[in-house]
Amino acid sequence: MQTLIKDVNIINPGEDIRTHQNVLIENGTIKEISSKKISAGDVEVIDGEDNYLLAGFIDCHSHIFAKGFHKEENMVNPLGIHFFNAVPHSLQTINAGVTTIRDCGSADLSFKLAQQRKLFIAPKVHLSVSPLVMTGGHFDLFLPSGWDMEITYPGFPKGRCDGVEEVLKKTREIKRAGADFIKVMASGGVLTTNNSPEFSQFNKKELKTIVKEANTNNMEVSAHCHSLKGMNNCIDAGFSSIEHGTFIDKKTACKMAKNKVSLVPTLLVHQFLYENGFPKWDNYAGEKTAKLKEIVKVHKENISVAYQEGVNILMGTDSGVIPHGHNLEELSLLTDIGMSESEAIASGTVKAAEFLGKNNLGQIKENYVADLIIVNSNPLDDVSILSDNSNVLRVLQDGNVVK
Q1: Phi then psi dihedrals of residue 261, to 5 deg
Q2: What is the rounded CA–CA span in Å between residue 285 and residue 191?
Q3: How far apart, in whole angstroms, are the C-alpha atoms of residue 115 and residue 121?
């Protein structure tokens, strides 16, 4: 089966717009691009109507199963709800124009297989399964009451570990569970009540052990990290990316750029939570909001410094902590820190694909995967138009129309 998109304007970041193009898709791949009429046999025609065609976006930090990480809901909901939540979350993500996600904790191998088998409309996924967390660290959900609120079930390993031997074994368990990369909680966080984001977590020996074992399996390691010391520990240990990077400074940014460590700042999540708050029944809402006040204040300024120092910045949203479907609002926040519209788009397309090791994704070129979106305005003039999902007219995944 072939699909022909006719009369569209092609946007590849860093290149001139190619106007009034025709794009032929065959077996999920872009077969031909031409300004001339393309002859094809049995073909489904999509009239682009002089709109704009972009590669489908890649959200480099999402939690597709999560719905706010409210521990209270984990207590009362049957386990099945944890999985069924992924169905509407996936549709919201697709409708926003995101065709691939890098899940940084909670999704398991079942989601990846369900997406591949087309059991429901969902973004493709790069899995971390369960993040590694030290006792008492961020995402250690053992409460003062003695209740452990971490969701576990057969095939989904617990992430808590301490010491060189335990982190080594846990890294192997996460790999066994189907992970594509390893996620480590290397600093405190906002949503966990027994620690603070400015403090580092795990020691250098533990971090180096995780990286060494992951690299043995050709896997990279990512760090949730707000802490300046934590970031430096992770860079020294050989991590591939820092998530959030709230308290980054110029010296650390230079070190990241030199060592080719990418940064996924997730600017949207902090701003969204600070503006919209937490459920009224959340007993820790006040404590979380107090943390956010300081984080929102410094985050934008510090990420701007990282951009100026040449750090490779990738689009990620922390969706799941906040409602799904707001993904491309992150692009406007990236332009606020100094990126051009083209650079912001690249951070969620070609640059993100390169980071994931996908050399046939993230651009509109012949022989590339046909994960595409059609939008009704030129985002190179104003990237904020992508924040409104109604401006995303169509989404194709492997050449199939999913919106």
Answers
A1: -95, 125
A2: 9
A3: 7
pTM for the complete prediction?
0.95
CA distance 282 to 53: 42
pLDDT bucket at 205, cuts 50 / 70 / 90: very high
Q: Which two tokens stand for residue 309?
A: 């120092």
Cα–chain center distance at 213: 23
Query: What 3-state class would DSSP assign to 378?
Result: coil
Q: Write down the pLDDT at residue 71.
A: 73
Is-contact 247 302, C-beta < 8 A?
yes
What is each CA distance from 313 to 112, 350, 401, in whole angstroms? 26, 12, 30
Compute, in degrees rounded to 10, the torsion defined by CA atoms 152, 153, 155, 158: 20
Query: Which tokens is 270 given?
Result: 């902090």
Q: Is the predicted pLDDT of residue 298 greater than 80, yes or no?
A: yes
Q: How does pLDDT run across 28-51, given as a tens digit for each residue?
A: 999 999 999 988 778 999 999 999
Percent of the chain with pLDDT over 90: 82
Rounded distance between C-alpha atoms, residue 385 and residue 393, angstroms: 12
Give the type of residue at 366: E
- Compute φ and ψ for 357, nearest 5 degrees: 75, 25
| Sole residue written with tokens 């794009």 | 23
Are the C-beta atoms of residues 328 and 96 closer than 8 Å to each other?
A: yes
Residue positions counted in the chain: 403
User: Where does the pLDDT of residue 76 fall: very low under 50, low under 70, confident under 90, or very high at 90 and above?
Assistant: confident
The closest of 128, 153, 152, 129 to 142, measured between CA atoms, is 152
State residue 374 phi and psi, 5-degree precision: -115, 125
Mind listing the pLDDT tens digit for each residue in 3-32?
A: 999 999 999 999 999 999 999 999 999 999
d(CA 225, CA 189): 8
Tokens of 372: 């595409």
Beta-carbon contacts of residue 329 (< 8 Å; ≥ 6 apart):
268, 317, 387
